[in-house]
User: Fold this.
Amino acid sequence: MSHEDIAVIGGGIVGLAIAYGLRQKGLPVTLYDGGPGDFRASRGNFGLTWVQGKGLGCPEYSEMSRRSSLRWQGFAQQLQRDSGIDCGFRRPGGLNLCLDPADLDRAESTMQAINRVNPQLNFQRWDAQRLRRRLPAISDRAAGAIFSPHDGHANPLNTLRALARAFQLSGGRQAYNTPVREIARHGSGFILHTARGEQRAARVVLAAGLDNVRLGRQVGLPIPIEPVRGQILVTERLPAFLPYPTNVARQTLEGSVLIGDSQEHAGFSTATRPEVLSRIARRAITLLPRLAESRIVRAWGALRIMTPDGLPVYAASTSHPGAYAVTCHSGVTLAALHSALLPDWIDGGVLHSLLEVFNVQRFTLSSPAAVNR
Ligand SMILES: Cc1cc2nc3c(=O)[nH]c(=O)nc-3n(C[C@H](O)[C@H](O)[C@H](O)COP(=O)(O)OP(=O)(O)OC[C@H]3O[C@@H](n4cnc5c(N)ncnc54)[C@H](O)[C@@H]3O)c2cc1C
Assistant:
């Protein structure tokens, strides 16, 4: 590795989206990724590119999610050209399915509040009748849904593979199985102490998921994140019946249905728990009764990377100029935006004004309730 290189630490969707964007600008990049025992949200997520409900109290978050959703189509097409891999992105609009009329009213009020400060964010309230016309598989117990045209979904594993391949084919260097243990200042750059020896870098980008807490401390970037576990069930392949991604289930292009919207503070454990799995399965079956006939073929737990306010972090170190950190809990949704906007910043430019509020100083000033989870 040349000491002019930018080191991106973390080969999940956040690190890869940034590394790919940096290579598109022609910058020299080495991507370091960890070992098999690491937590990897990018390999265990639900695959939604989701905008509705995000950004209550933070219009910048709703707007950046909306802009990323708009960019996703072009991002997926470019990735397919560069890697030959289809990310499986579709944006038919998404449904927040509600069983209870009070939940539907609450969801609508939330969207109205977000829309008042960000009128670009469109949505419709679908009552039970309209929902049934658009989604015949819905249970007649459902109260209705909020439809948002900005929502979509992608195959997260294909997206990860496409990014890794496109990065490699563009001349990016990959150091897999090479966890970075320590980062130290070296002249105007850095020395990385890795599991495979020392490497130099002109700049470092921390995109190591939950390990950003440890690495951030080493470069003057205190990032308060905690793991929040989600559990997911996958059915066998079924004939197409769910044309929209929803908050409780989505059907892949291949026919499997992913089910799951659980959130647990369970420390650093990715274990599955039968009571949680049966709760999410029951809810999905109540809303989409034909799921009762399907067989579950897989289940897993994975850890979200969550800040106290549920919002991302884009931080540049003042004590260690040239060190950057990026953390977020909607890395699939934001991948298209990250790839487009973050490389200029890391290349010495200014952070896009929409992202300025997501600094680390906000955690020392106040700690608002987590509303964006
Ligand atoms: C159950 C669940 C459902 C989700 N659903 C969605 C969804 O529908 N839509 C959405 O947008 N988001 C969703 N997310 C969130 C999304 O998955 C994450 O925001 C995203 O994957 C975070 O990516 P990351 O690259 O920051 O972290 P990770 O994917 O965790 O990757 C971190 C990488 O860093 C590497 N690493 C760690 N330490 C080191 C080190 N010291 N040196 C080198 N490498 C290191 C690891 O090996 C790993 O590859 C979900 C998450 C979960 C858990």
Notes: The domain at 91-151+226-306 is CATH 3.30.9.10 (D-Amino Acid Oxidase; Chain A, domain 2). The radius of gyration is 21 Å.
